[in-house]
Amino acid sequence: ASQPCGWYIDDVEIAGGTFKPVDRSNQIADVGQFFEGTYTVRGRQKGLYAYRVRGLYPPDGEYEGPPSNIRVVDVTSGANPPAPPGGNPPRTDPAPPPTDPQACPFAPKFRTAKAIRRGRGLAFDFSTFTGQPARIDVFQASRGTRVFRARRVARFAGRTKAFAWNGRSRRRLTSGFYFARFMTGDAEDNDIRRVTLQRSKGRFRIVRPHYRRSTCGVLRTFKLSSPAFGGRNRKRLGVAYRLGAEARVSVVVRRGKKVIRRFKARNRSAAVVHRLSLRPRGLPRGLYRVTVTVAAAGRTTRSPLYSRKL
Q: What is the pLDDT of residue 130?
């Protein structure tokens, strides 16, 4: 890190799908260094509890980064949970939280999911926490200077370990923008990741993302409609996000350091997909950065995504 950064741990419990921050007043990292913090779990019955970690900048926590994957701590020393009525044996893990319409459905299932350039194709490296198989699809979003609705060009179902794709398809693959989609779980409870790609001179390369994976933070989902926009058919760029709690949200579009469009900050409700669009007319070609800023409960979350104007 080139600037002082701090770290904190979210509380080791899930209450209605929401993590609660614990005290972080003395957990500050020096420039470019890592530290180990020791946290004591008190007042808990025996059982399994979840926690996750976020980065802070500056150390006093004005801005926070995305949360880490959910980790688990096992409380082994403490009181046993009280025996339920009816003489059934006591639980050794906490009772499930009550049903909450705002409860987060985005618990991570992928330990890792990434695409790696290999020859004229790609290597797909992934692993899951659950041991469930994964499905990987490759979609094409543009051809030359024409942007269109994503078309699937390759599909690999029921995969349980990393594998390589030679880059061949029944469809004729051309230069343009693509993305690989990793998916595991079922229709009600899944984890989806995307890797943005560009194909040129018969080879793929990894480019900046147009999609942010879903999380349990205040910014639940955030994505752009495509890794490319504009082109011969003047395709608009769509922006969509959903919140986990009511918050004040602003969206800024930049090309390099220049601000191209600043959407007015508004108070937005939770559990609703909010949509915006950017018209390509009059915009120069190049890479555009769309940054959403979410302010809620005294904290600010910023997240950038990217799309190229053709």
A: 85
pLDDT tens digits, one per residue of 186-208: 777 789 999 999 999 999 999 99
Q: Is 187 exposed, middle or buried (0-12, 13-18, 19+ CB in 10 A)?
A: exposed
Phi-psi region of 87 (alpha: psi -120 to 50; beta: other; left: phi over 0): left
Q: Looking at residue 94, what is its pLDDT? A: 41
Q: What is the pLDDT of residues 251-263, one digit of tens each?
A: 999 999 999 999 9
pLDDT higher than 80, residue 137? yes
Query: What is the C-alpha to C-alpha distance for residues 128 and 191, in angstroms, rounded to an integer?
Result: 10
Instruction: Give the contacts of 38 (CB within 8 A, at least 6 positions apart).
Output: none
Distance, in Å, from the CA atom of 304 to the CA atom of 291, rounded to the nearest integer, reads 4
> Looking at the predicted structure, is the pLDDT value of residue 56 above 70?
no
The whole-model pTM stands at 0.68
Query: pLDDT-based confidence at 271, cuts 50/70/90?
Result: confident
Q: Match 């005294």 to its residue by tokens.
A: 298
23 CB-side CA count, 13 A: 6
3-class SS letters over the chain: CCCCCEEEEECCCCECCECCECCCCCCECCCCCCCCCCCCCCCCCCEEEEECEEEEECCCCCEECCCCCCEEEEECCCCCCCCCCCCCCCCCCCCCCCCCCCCCCCCCCEEEEEEEEECCEEEEEEEECCCCCEEEEEEEEEECCEEEEEEEEEEEEEECCCEEECCCCCCCCCCEEEEEEEEEECCCCEEEEEEEEEEECCEEEECCCCEECCCCCCEEEEEECCCEEECCCCECEEEEEEECCCEEEEEEEEECCEEEEEEEEEEECCCCEEEEEECCCCCCCEEEEEEEEEEECCEEEEEEEEEEEC
